[in-house]
Amino acid sequence: MVSRDQTPAVLGWEAFVAARTRAIRGLTGMVLELGAGQGENFSALTPGVQWLGLEPSSRFRRTLAERARHAGHHQPPIAATAEAIPLDDASVTNVMATTVLCSVTDPGQVLQETARVLTPGGQVVLAEHVPAPTGSSARRAQRLVKPFTKFFDHGCDLTRDTEAAVHNSDLTVQDVSRFHIRVLGRLHIPFVVITAQKPAMPQHTQG
């Protein structure tokens, strides 16, 4: 497990996007994207990846399907929530989600479903905003605008601690990269890029 105090934060949106892209580009095989939106991450995928997109919004799925075809991915988007992924156990190689777990109803259930559909040893890449330190002006600002973001931004909860949720899941955290993104004047909001893994099956020894 990676300690939250080991990795210093890097300033800037560009650095966050670059780290997010590097992490996504490292995924191979069949990649399931949770909350795929309108296909913003296609350019970050490695050529040859078999992409599956899960998106609960019918409005987003129309655009997503079109952009997926243009990107060479012909599997239609899956109409489902991330809390109930309609795929078999151990059926995908890797999973990715970018600014999605802030909006789901039950992040613990999402991570449980993610671990279920992953093959043993499969990786998860998450890029999310997380709560600022308790007592900070940024944390107070997050609490202040949270009712508005939840209503106007697809249920987005600015105070949701996705990093803690991953640490408390069945996934093993491999790396956490931290960033401070300026949103207003001197106010910065923390973001993270998390790489985690489903533990490989234990090997049985012959007696």
Automatic annotation (TrEMBL):
Top-level taxon of the source organism: Bacteria
Pfam families membership: Methyltransf_11 (PF08241)
Classification via CDD domains: AdoMet_MTases
GO BP term, pick one: methylation
Alphabetical UniProt keywords: Methyltransferase, Transferase
Name this protein carries in UniProt: Class I SAM-dependent methyltransferase
InterPro entries cross-referenced by the UniProt entry: Methyltransf_11 (IPR013216), SAM-dependent_MTases_sf (IPR029063), Thiol_S-MT (IPR052356)
Residue ranges constituting the Methyltransferase type domain according to the UniProt record: 32-125
Organism: Yaniella flava
GO molecular function: methyltransferase activity
